[in-house]
Amino acid sequence: MSEIFRVAIIGSGPAGKSAAGRAASLGMSHILLEKTDHLSDTIYKYQKGKHVMATPSQLVLRSDQEFEAGKREAILEKWNARTKELGVNVKFNAEAKAIRGTGPAIEGSVHVIEMRARDGTVTKKEIQRYAPPYEIELTNGEKIMAENVVFAIGTQGNPNRMRCPGGDLPHVQYQLDDPTEYVDEHIVVIGAGDAGIENARGLAEDSAQGNVVTVVSRGPEATSPKESFPTAKEANALALLGDRNAGKLNIRFETDTASVEPGWITFSTRDGEERVRCDRIIARIGSAPPRAFIEECGIAFTSADRLAFPQLSPVFESTAPGIFVIGALAGYPLIKHCMNQGYDVIEFINGNTELKPADEPILEAKFKDLPGRKSVAEWLDLLRENVTILNGMNPLQMREFMLDSDAKFYRKGDVIFERAAPGSSLFAIAQGSVAVQIDPNDTSKTVPIGQGSIFGEVGLISGRRRGATIVAAEDTICVEISRNAALKLQSQVPTAKKAIERISTERLLLQMFGSGLKPDDIAEVVQTSKIRQVKPGEAILKEGDEGNEIYVIRVGSMIVEKEIGGKPVFLSYLPAGSYVGEMALIAGGRRTATVKAAIKSEVIQIDGDAFKKVLEANPELLKRAKRDMASRQDINAFIEAKKDSFSGVVDMYSGVANFLVENGIGEATDVLLIDESLCVGCDNCEKACADSHDGLSRLDREAGRSYAHLHVPTSCRHCEHPHCMADCPPNAINRGPDGEVYINDTCIGCGNCQRNCPYGVIRMDKVPPKKPSLLSWLFFGFGPGPGEPSKKWAYANSDPGVEKPKKAIKCDMCAGIEGGPSCVRACPTGAAIRVAPDEFLTVARLEQEEA
After folding, report:
1. pLDDT score, position 778
2. Backbone angles phi, psi at 387, to 5 degrees
3. How many CB atoms lie within 10 A of CB 302?
4. Cα–Cα distance for residue pair 551/581, rounded to 1 Å
5. Residue 767: which pLDDT band, with cuts at 50, 70 and 90?
């Protein structure tokens, strides 16, 4: 009988190599099976010169192998040398074909798997699990015996294939080894995850190669790099957009492949199909576990979904005793995680049952304030089982998910957040329930949300302030999911995305229309509604068109225009949470105005016939809808009546409104405007700003653009989804209780926020020495006087031996300073005002002009 190894490790990637290194260090009988003639095939196939990241940075590396960020070649060289030094028993060109338990059958462990052929036919097969030892049959016929088996094969060997006509042509490839091999080609990279981004940037890096590179992404372009590419690292997403802006490559959002033919590719876009020249396609559209092979080994998966992962215990053991799964195949793709798992699984097999995962201290800190003495593993199980959107995750995915989320305990009556408070996180109820206060004037009127559900989704989706006050109806445990974690969850767990979209649509409609509606009342409306992405300037309603659909603005903002005298006149600005289209449904007839996106937006398109049934069944809702309609009819009538006698004011207001939208007011929550007909140029606003902020003004009054008498100076707009937050390494940029976006003292001066801001309102500067008070200057002549000190004074009064680091500086709306923004308070003529766009951009301003 051949030797029975204590452990056989299949796959020599970061997880398998780390496991084998630990086994060798412990003197454990082991064998590392690698199907190629080299170690770490996935890293080996990275494109030449690729920089490999070592994230997450806060996670301690636990392995007998070293790893730190660096070039692919240097990392592989170190790993190969260390593997040899440790004396790892490696068998190359050893591909596992089958694994069979040779021990007794496990009672009650028969399960059914579905075998799907290339032609789409499905056959069912019963699998019986058997106990160890296991026989591993290789493709060359050789057999290896082992008491334990560790699967560390990843998923890259099973890439997702293009499923469109022509997707199997020779010029479609799923791997890029050396981008310098390709010259003067039109290359399309399908997929905008890390692999696709890195391949595209490598192909476009050297302009002398002459490649025309296009990246194709199904998702929409969002307000930040991370949201545009939710499955990619922020640094990669930011770099890709930088290359696009520099003209090195093209990015096509909201695009899919319709068909492929030699020399051409046909895209399916929002505007129809488009045929484009294409010499080569590199498809990096992810990969899936080799499910049939894994299931035939007796391992069950978490669900029937093709992208589901194996069922695993907290110590990585599968449903087949003695078979363990680690690394990307377990749903943990990051190299550091994989290496830690390799170390941990061997320690467990060796009898070290007390070993805690490397991320245990981080997670313990997150759960320490929750009631009840539960271990990290118990808390993770409770959250995963009790929260519907987390049901599809395995324990290892839950660990990674919770690194970016927080668990919080609220006593009965505690306010979780208040109406109009800023916030973009999502909350999930793991235990207990909450009450939504639907009437700000009567807190006794509430709607319950029970265990397993979510709330806060409106802030997550639109970036607007919270729509209602939420209090704990009983002692409650919630998971607060950060915006980035929620986006990642939706991209990785399809059931979570569907649940969040359905719940958010239902809640938004109930919150907007009120009138005692219940979920059952709008079930048909929710079921038939569609979520649409809308490009800037694209119209969802056109004046004169037919149709009875209603549109709810989910993300972004819209402007309403009416044609007067052959030209469009601005009527109003509609933020997220508004709705339009009810006039044609209630009163009949054609659309009376055009509604188009001020910025990239998202709307819920509601079937008019389904909504009409709700109106007919709910008289109070119909009455309210008619009031809203009457208000809009009054605006139309006002504009029509004044189009001759008042045309100058109408034209002026319309021009001002369009100017403000063009200058970013459409995504602002608070903006500084200056009425130049009142401004006397005293610069008191800048001086007051500097005196309130350590001598550094956040405002440049003269900079910025003007229209007529209205000026938009260089000052922060406090955007709904701030661009500056997209890539801040120390997370130094936050939103305060009054909606202000501010930068705290942890800023490291990297300049990412300055580069990301499209409005030029952030600058990098050294904090000057503290200057004497205004009274000291006034009575004794000490210091440079009010306002920002000159560079000469700052230099003369700085410590010559100390180089002050630069910090990011921007308007914080004078948070914490009594009386509010100092620029407004210091203006002697009232020229400076701070406004919310939905309050300022209204036809009511025309009525004031007339008065």
Report:
1. 64
2. -100, 120
3. 16
4. 6
5. low
Higher pLDDT among residues 344 and 789, named by residue = 344
SS3 167: coil
Res 77: pLDDT: 94
CA 683 to mean position of chain CA atoms = 40
Does residue 352 carry a pLDDT above 50? Answer: yes
Residue 427: what residue type?
F
Cα within 13 Å of Cα(48), Cβ side: 7
Sheet containing 256-261: which strands, arranged edge to edge? 256-261, 264-269, 272-277
pLDDT at 85: 96
Whether residue 170 has a cis bond before it, omega within 30° of 0: no
Distance CA 63, CA 197 (A): 29
The bridge status of strand 143-151 relative to strand 4-10 is: parallel
Q: Give the pair of three-digit tokens for residue 264.
A: 């051409």
- Band of the pLDDT at 848, cuts 50, 70, 90? very low
Residue 380, both tokens: 């993770």
Tokens of 244: 């696009």
Closest to 578 (Cα-Cα) out of 616, 615, 541:
541
- Among 194, 250, 198, 187, smallest CA distance to 221 is for 250
Strand, coil or helix: 522: helix
**H-run or E-run covering 840:** helix 837-840
Task: Return d(Cα 155, Cα 174) in angstroms, integer.
Answer: 13
pLDDT at 760: 79
Report the C-alpha gap between 91 and 35 in whole angstroms: 8
How far, in Å, CA of 313 to CA of 309, rounded?
Answer: 12
The length of the chain, given as a count of residues: 851
Q: Which two tokens stand for residue 389?
A: 């959107």
| Order of strands, sheet of 434-437, starting from the edge strand that comes earlier in the sequence | 415-417, 469-472, 434-437, 446-449
pLDDT at 737 over 80: no
For the cut 70, the answer to whether the pLDDT of residue 464 exceeds it is: no
Residue 488 has pLDDT above 90, yes or no: no
Q: Which token pair is 451?
A: 């265990």
CB 192 within 8 A of CB 215: yes
- Whole-structure pTM value: 0.55
Rounded to the nearest 5 percent, the helix, strand and coil shares of the chain are 30, 25, 45
At a CB cut-off of 8 Å and minimum separation 6, what does 791 contact? none
Specify the 3-state DSSP secondary structure of 417. Answer: strand
Residues 6+ apart with CB under 8 A from 372: none
Helix extents (H) in 618-747: 619-642, 647-662, 684-692
| Burial of 798 from C-beta contacts in 10 A (0-12 / 13-18 / 19+) | middle
Distance CA 158, CA 757 (A): 40
Tokens of 384: 């995963």
pLDDT digits (tens, 9 = 90+) for 361-382: 889 999 999 998 899 989 999 9
Q: How far apart are CA 396 and CA 291, in angstroms?
A: 18
Domains and CATH numbers, the chain: 4-157+288-358 (3.50.50.60), 172-283 (3.50.50.60), 365-502 (2.60.120.10), 524-645 (2.60.120.10), 655-850 (no CATH)
* Lowest-confidence region among 327-341, 364-378, 633-647, 810-824: 633-647
CA–CA dist 752, 282 (Å, integer) = 30
